[in-house]
Request: fold
Amino acid sequence: MVRLIPRYFDLLLLLVEERQRAVSRQEIFDRVWADVVVSDGALTQAIRTIRRTLGDGRDASQFIRTVSRHGYQFVAADVRLEPDDEPLPAPTETAGPSRSNGPGVAAPPDERERLLSVLLKEGANARATEDERYDAAVSLHELGTAEALARLDDRPGHEEARAILRDARWDAPTAGPVPLISAHGRVRAIADVVRLRVRHAARLASRRWLRATLSGAVAGTFAGVTGAIAFGLGPVARLDLGLVIALSVIGAGAGALGAAAIGGGMATAETLARSARAVALTVAGAVGGGVAGALARLATVAILHHVFGRNVPHLAGGVEGMILGGVLGCGYAVATGRLAQGGMAAPRGAARWRVAALTGLVAGITGAVLGATGFLMVATSLDSIANVFAGSSVGLDQFVSVVGDDRLRSVVRTLVSGFEGLMLGAGIAYGLTHRPRS
Reply:
């Protein structure tokens, strides 16, 4: 019995079922990695691992043929499909190494050393390519992770080799843990892991960041238009096109800035972090939100003071942004936790809207709590600005006039802040789950 990680088995099954034709790379991504975004290299590695598992030769493809600029085709002549309702046979001792770092499969005496030489680019393997080193790391996992780490020890280049082993364990179903924090040279090893993952997925992460920024701007525009319409519902007010334009521009700018900072941090975290994804998304969201809030406050204070000669003491800032961004990142991590196995979450259809709704709900509740406890969001900051500019139309008084009771001002603040958080969270989550075409 041979072992494959679930997605690799799904890929093999797809190629076998569709063996009468070549399956395009895009179709493979759409069917095997339907709920995550992975780089083209992930598919290449999957094919390479399947070929090695099946014993496919390098010179001639006995099982899987590469169709140039299109995809792959299963070409083995003798294929027999049988029902899978029978229980699997018990694994034998030579079926593979145990997940708990057992001794691994039997190997020729020098096989581990040869693979380590490739991984470390030693001697005759000094020109080993990135793919060859990655393949060597996967093979070392199959022979026993603990033994590979013990032999690696402090040999020259062990930090980068350890980083490759760490990254390759996702493609080896029997791989054991590859600790970095407790390892010698851990700072460089961690830096190498980050460098490898950034290089592999920077393009996909940047696309998702741009989508998140755009979605945040759209959500902010919608919030601004909704606010203008709500202002027009007051007993003495009327819907004004100028107010709609003004609030739309403010909402789009605030939404784009918040989404660019929070979404950028989260897209980066989702690219780099696999083992501690929820923690990374939470921290990245908090940092991005704090930066966005601080920059927005700094720019607003500067404009009001130097252009209009006014000082507004109460404005939203880095604290509110950090809290909202952190909770938003945590909500997104929870909403996509089951989808992002080995890549960046990319649900489709109703599932994508559910992720956006859940993330928006969490951010909305956070915004409402911030509003209820005296923290400021965009609309409540505008209310503070309106108090120092006579004749301003963007104060909360307009909303309070709709309910007709000034004692409900705190309720209005809570609802408006919650609506802001809802729109920002939903916009960022919807943009981050964008699935780019290969």
About this structure: Residues 111-184 form one domain. The two ends are 34 Å apart (CA to CA). The longest strand covers residues 64-67. Strands lie at 23-24, 36-37, 64-67, 71-74, 344-345.
